Amino acid sequence: MALKNFGLSGSSQGMPRLKLPAFFSPWRSKVASDKRRPEQPASERDSSQLAPRLAWAVDASCASNGCSADASDVCSTLARLCTGSQAPALFRCLGGSVDLICETLNGNEVPMDAVSTLTAAAEFLAAGESCDQHLEFLLLAHSDKAAMHGFVREMEGTLSVLCKSPSLRGIAPPLQDALGQWRSDIEVFQERCREAWELHAYFVFLDLKGDQTLLKLVAKQLMGLLETSPRGLIANLARTSPWVESAFEILASKGERAMLEQRHEQALQTWLASVMVNDKENAMLQGDGQQFWDAYFCNFYKITWPDFEEAFQQYFIHQSGLPQDIQERLRARTAIASRHHVARHVWDSLLETSGRPMALLEGLVKEVLLDLPATIYSNAPASKSRSKSFGGIAFGSEFSSLGKSSVPQVTDLPGSTQRPPGLAWGPDSEKSSSAASLAAPGVLMVDLPTTVPVGAHRPRTSGTITAQDPRLRMGPIEPGPRMEWDRFVAHLCTNTRPWWVAHGEPLTDMLPGQQDPTQVQALRSVNSSIIATRKALILRVASGDLAHNCPVLDIPASAAVRREVESHPALGTESKLPAIVITPNSTRFSCVTKFGRATHRQTLLPDLVMKEPIASRSHFNVVYEPKTDRYQVMDAGSKWGTFIKYETTGKNVSCGDWIRIGNAELVIRYCGGGCKRHSQHAHYRLHSLSVARSVYGGSSFGLMQPSRRPGFGLMQSAFEDKDDDVELLESEEQKQGASGRYEQCVTMLAGGSVPAAFSSSFEKMCYQAHAMQASKPGEKTRMNSNPTSVTSSGSPRKPPMSLPVQPLEIDFLSGPRMGQRVMVTDKVCTVGRGDSSTIQISDPMLTNVSRTHCIFTYVGNRWQISDNKSTNGTWRRLSCVLEPSEPIDVSTGESFLAGAHELHVEEVEMSRWWIPSSASVVLKDLQQEHREVTSHHVDGRRSASRSGNKAGSHAQSSQ
Fold it and tell me: Where in the numbering of this chain does the FHA domain appear (predicted)?
């Protein structure tokens, strides 16, 4: 600090110290030696013990030798510093004693050494006169106890000696009063110094915790203590770097727990009191809260937690905000089934239990206060690496000035206009006279009742190249500059200057090493919502307008996150795709980055805006999971869906999976019984039996209506697990006619437009059941314990029929085969537009399906799907019921689709630690609010002045 008699100097412990005037310097070592002795209150100190410490002794000989001077100048300086409305706020508590001293000594001859002491005291206090140095002075006075105690004792000793001076015997009583007042005032000043230090340390703690609501509250307390504006507070905080580093060390070692608990309890109670005082918020909180859900989430049963949290704050406590610990308690009460979802019945039940929202808030605060130690420090050891979070960030136009892009612009491909996903089917086509032409070996198709015409023909494909999906085409984009990853990270760190570092001062690089930086260690110790990780997620924008102004990043192989289970190639190759960089520490919500469409309503705004009309307001979220250290993607309940891309390796399918193949979308109605939806399996086993009955009871093998005729000789175990042996009784007449009807079905299949190159397993099993699976004489079965297996007419029963695979039943929801239901019974089923595909999807108006697009395979006891390196990919929808999905892990090489955006995933690590500050956001918000209030007052005064001038002019004209 560039001051004459005051500043910072190094110490053995790295803490700042006071630079005292030379007169006070000897007292630092003296007081430091007395540290072990308990400190006595100032009122109980014996002034006779202080007097011998003085460098001079006042007696009658001093005055006779001319060792005296006028104290008027120094008294006026002390009065200016400590008394009056213009005095600095931190010194006004000394005004009472200083006023008495100046009033007593003014106009009197005072010993020269006493004047020197008062002059040095004035210089000492003048060091904190500047408005930007108030907080620094208070922190220094609290930290450098030796120098501060030396100053206090020197002043007390001087006043004590003056009281006993024979030459000043006439003013001794007022000096005694001044000494008593000084002891009282200096205790108040030291208490203010301690309060400033505690508030500053608590401010650092809240910054690491990520609690913007309480940060704003503490910032206002600091502004009141210093009597300054938000701009002045920012200037004061920028000079406190040594104390911030000291606070990091204390927090890293989990120290000062009692002080932090006390401050945290006071802050929470102050926040609750402010909410109850606010009339507007109190009116909402005192209501029943029933209108809240309909006001924001009408017609929605389940929503994401970030949307619920934002709506809760805007509806009930918009001005005050919600503290971080209260948010966690509210999340535990509402997001019960999943930490990422909130259901309406849970909210209604919570309101019914609490009675009203205000009672709910009071209960949450009580819960936090009962478990207050858990809100300060984490349970993990201080040295253990731990992750917590705060959201993500996208970097785009701010990097446009770093250099000119060397990447060629992506232009629109020729083709038709964009259509919403799921609605891009072709025009109606002629129906074939024989529906069996659509059936390939191993596939059964059942017509669903629908009014939409179904194309029943198999048009020959003339093109040889699969066109890009027109729904993913985009106009020209302007990507940002090409940058190396390390340069990008360095630019990011240098442009986010911490609030405790003044402009012009160098920043400390937080490079990884054997020992993490102190700030990172402190972050891991604190129970925080901020993440201590260098991992980032890069989303390469292959299509969509999110690519505008995003940099094209070159990722070195050393920065790539490689997982042992991954089969993707290592990073390090150059990419021409613009990149969105997401980190866990920079958006409004902990561990969540929201994507969606912008709206004119200033509610539920996304972090990154998708401009296409088919994007929902809350479309999808990128989530960071601290426990597994993985990034995840979840659909936020969007209308048009978020899709994850299938890889060339097989992935298990489950009942209810929504799959997108070009412009066709289908749903897995029955996966064969391998997934966890057991209740759905029981229903579709019976349904599969009905389908099998239609094969034998109807007159066609292709698109058939279920037969209403009596049962036939087919065991349901053909479509069930081996332990299920439910039979259908048949009559002798039906048994005799079954063979002829089946021959008719096979003839129709062989005479179709597609020649049957092989017989499916289903056809073979229909000719004759395996004799080895027939019930042996006398063997008991599950449903029939009769040792003889005969029909009602006395003839032997046919043995149970069993297929080598469980059937796969799929339903087409859009595309050229919309409304059709297909059952697959072969172990391998290909899907594509080619004539050789088992299930053909061909649209003459939109060729976005490859010849062999994807493959269904029965492996083990599960059906799997794999993409066949198709042009436009095979995708699975994350949520099929307009509700938020569960987050799924994503890793390098995977892709997902949202609206018109196709995004490729890359996991990388930063070359240095980057931890954004919540306090910086709060300070900027306070400064903006102060500007708006000041501008409003100025406009009001101008308006009043104009009104007064007009009134005066009108009065003059009337006269």
Answer: 593-649, 829-875
